[in-house]
Amino acid sequence: MEEVERLWNEVRELSLGNNSKVERLQTPPTALQFLRDFVNPNKPCIISNAINHWPALSLWAQAQHSYLSRSLSSSSVSLHLTPSGRADALAPLPSSPSSLCFASAHVQRTPFPDALRLIASPDHNPAVVAYAQQQNDCFRSEYSALAADCDPHIDWATEAFGGALPEAVNLWIGNQRSHTSFHKDHYENLYAVVSGEKHFILLPPTDVHRLYIRQYPAATYRYSSDTGEFDLELEEPIRYVPWCSVDPFPPPEKLHEEVSKFPLYFNGPKPFECTVKAGEILYLPSMWFHHVRQSSGDGGCTIAVNYWYDMQFDIKYAYFNFLQSIHYRSPSLLLPEKFSEETDSDPDCL
Ligand SMILES: O=C(O)CCC(=O)C(=O)O
Hints:
22% of the residues lie in helices and 33% in strands. By secondary structure, it is of the alpha+beta class. It has one domain: Jelly Rolls, CATH 2.60.120. The protein has a 9-stranded mixed sheet with strand order 1-2-17-11-19-9-8-3-7. The protein has helices at residues 2-16, 31-39, 56-59, 66-71, 112-120, 155-160, 255-261, 263-266, 315-325, 337-343, and strands at residues 23-25, 45-47, 76-82, 86-87, 89-93, 96-104, 106-111, 129-133, 168-174, 179-183, 187-195, 197-203, 213-224, 229-234, 240-244, 272-277, 281-284, 289-295, 302-310. Helix 2 links the parallel strand 1 (23-25) and strand 2 (45-47). 2-oxoglutaric acid binds next to strand 11, strand 18 and strand 19. Residues 130-324 form the JmjC domain. Pfam families: Cupin_8.
C-alpha cells in the first residue's frame, strides 16, 4: 500500500509545494485569480490587507474591549465551557480512563459582558476555560449588533464561488487556553482574524489516513456553577462520532507512545503550518483537516470571524470518499499490533 504514501508526495510535488508553507498574498486576489490559483486546486492561502477597511479592526481592539461590551451590553451569547480548553475533542471516558470519548462543551447562554470577563481573564477561574463560539451563523444572529463592523461577505470569494452568499458567518472569541482539535468541514472557509493570532496546522484531504479517524462514543461536559466542577456524561443511548485520533501536541510524557500509535502522522510529510495575524484572512479549502490554537491580542482575547460558503460536491468529493474507503494498513513495523487490531476494523469517515 505504498501507493497511498506516494499520493501524499505527488500532491505536494504537483500542486501544494514541498515546503509545507501556505502561500501569502499581499493584496486580495481578483475572483478569477482566487478561483484559478486556489479554489480549483483546493489549495490554502493567506491574504494580507484584505480587511483593512473593517471598523472591527480598531473598534474591537479598544482597551478593555469597551466597544464590544457596550454594543452587546444587553445580548446573551452561547458560551462553551470545558475544564481543559478542548471541546469537540477526545477525552478519557469517565468510567474507564484508558478509553476515549468524543467530548462536547457545556454550552450556556451568558450575558455578553460576563462571557467576555471569563474569556479575557482566564486566571480568575483556572478550572474553567470559556470560548464564545457557536457554529450556527452566530455572527448574523447573536452578534447582529456588530454587523456594521465587518463586511457581510468577502466579495471576491462570493464571486469566485458563483455568487451565492455565505451559508454561515461565525464569530470566535477565545484565549490561548482553547484548542480546536483536528477535523474537517464540508465548507469553503474564509477565516478572518480581527484580534490576536490563530495558529493552524493543515493537512490536505489526500492525507486522510494519517489522522486515524475512528468511532468514539459521544459525551458532554456538564458544569455546575454551585460546585465549580465538571462532569463528563456519556450520551444515552450511545451515539458514535467518527473523529481524528491524532493530537499534534501530546504532553511530553506521552509523546513516545503517541508517535508509535500514529506513525503516519508523526513520521509522514510535515503538515502545513501557518499563523494568521490580525487583519489577515486564511482561505481554508473544503475538506482540509485543521487543528487550531490561538494567542491573545491586547485585552486578552483572540477574535475572528469566518465565512462558510457551500462547497461543490463534485469529483474531488467522490475521489475523497473513495480514498477514505480504502483500508490502509501501514507497514506492520510502524504500527503496534495492539492498536492495529483495535482500530483496523473501524474504517470510518468524518
Ligand atoms: O478558530 C477555531 O478555534 C476553529 C475554527 C474552525 O474549526 C473552523 O473555522 O472551521
